[in-house]
Amino acid sequence: MSAELQHLLLVYGTYVIAAGSPGPSNMRIMGVAMQQGRQAALALAAGVVTGSVFWGMMAATGISVLLTRYAEVLTALKIFGGLYLLFLAFKAGRAAVISDERAMARAPTPPSSRTALYRQGLLMHLGNPKSVLAWIALVTLGLGTDASWQRVAVILSGCAVLSVTIFCGYAVLFSTAPMVRLYRLVRRWIEGTLSIAFGFAGLRLLLART
User: For residue 133, how far is the Cα from the chain centroid?
Assistant: First the structure.
């Protein structure tokens, strides 16, 4: 195996670990998939993928380095992302405290449109400054000072394919019949877990120093 291929595999492996590990985006996709179905979860995942590719392009072109030099920009991103995650935590927590009987008795809430879900996924990823910093680290790992545009294209396109595979994979997996049945059985526990996860992530963003 050539050194070039080994280096690419290292970059791709790092991205898989970063994108595939449980986080607000993945957990939101899981919740939407079990509650609203595959198409809704795929729309949300598409927004997350778009945000990820956007930050990747910014990092590759060097624009995101400017963001790290201006603390007020990252601070604004942190505040926006943190508040948005706390809003999602509130929604999930409100759903968790409603009993199954009340949830079944009340008028059904119309599912979110695919456009709204796409926008939600996009805002979640664009509002997370850690996505910017993670991409800067990834690009720094994969590109040298003399990197050609071909290598940049290979890294970005490969990570884009992995992004689609990971986030859409979550949408497909958690929208299967067994997962939907699981959601119906333990709906309140799932919503409560999502509320805690979103709240923790939101507070970490708001309280983090970097």
Answer: 14
